[in-house]
Design goal:
The protein has about 230 residues and is an all-alpha fold. About 65% of the residues lie in helices and about 0% in strands. The protein has a single domain, classed as Four Helix Bundle (Hemerythrin (Met), subunit A), CATH 1.20.120.1630. It is globular and about 50 Å long.
């Protein structure tokens, strides 16, 4: 109970409200198109995806929720990730802001229904993959650090059997599908930028784990690919 009281701070509550509730609704709030069914579906999927994944993760590894809630309190976060982690969060918000402005100002033509359905499936698969990684990996932190205080070790089960960074892979898939599902060509600009940041972060984190985490080199020999099975 005391540990829960420590992590449930006004800052954490504000972060949850903003990132979990407000941010998914940004396209609707900005465009004021309340009959925009795609934006409603995206917001509902995002919120439910967050809630369900955290409930399942907490049942299996309660301490991973505590670890992620302390994202701003870790003093041993890698210096480069102190810059990249916030960029990922801001980039995700920027994608949704551009989507909302695009709908408000009518910059982009609508995509066809089949394309939207494929994009929705990609969004769901992306959330599923990232959630699977979170549930399987009790060291799934919001920042890159060597978690010596938690007995950090290599996780090679679940989606980690196929790729070394499935959480990032799921996020990439979701980000790339959002502009298609929400009818915004212009949103591909911040999407490409955030994708570059995620790939950079993946590469730096992989190098860090190779150097610092015992057993990771052997794991990397068994699981060759970081993000894209068969490619990289």
């Amino acid at each position: 109970m005391k540990e829960q009281e420590k992590i449930i701070t006004p800052r954490v509550i504000f972060q949850l409200i903003f990132f979990v509730v407000i941010m998914p609704f940004l396209p609707l709030l900005i465009s004021r198109q309340w009959d925009w069914w795609e934006a409603w579906i995206y917001a509902i999927v995002s919120i439910l995806g967050f809630i369900i994944s955290r409930i399942l993760a907490a049942r299996r590894h309660p301490d991973v929720i505590v670890e992620r809630a302390k994202i701003l309190q870790h003093e041993d976060t890698q210096p480069w990730d102190k810059k990249l982690a916030p960029l990922v969060g801001l980039g995700g918000g920027l994608v949704l802001v551009v989507v909302g402005l695009d709908e408000l100002l009518g910059w982009s033509p609508a995509y066809s229904l089949p394309i939207k359905l494929i994009a929705l499936i990609a969004i769901l698969l992306g959330y599923a993959l990232s959630s699977y990684a979170l549930i399987e990996n009790r060291f799934f932190s919001g920042v890159v650090r060597l978690q010596t205080d938690r007995g950090h070790q290599v996780v090679s089960s679940g989606p980690y059997r196929w790729m070394r960074h499935p959480g990032y892979a799921g996020a990439l898939l979701t980000y790339l599908a959002i502009p298609l599902f929400l009818d915004s060509c212009w949103a591909f600009i911040p999407t490409v930028l955030i994708s570059i940041v995620l790939i950079m972060r993946t590469n730096l984190e992989d190098r860090f784990l190779h150097a610092e985490l015992e057993g990771y080199r052997d794991y990397a020999v068994r699981v060759r690919y970081r993000l894209f099975p068969g490619i990289w």
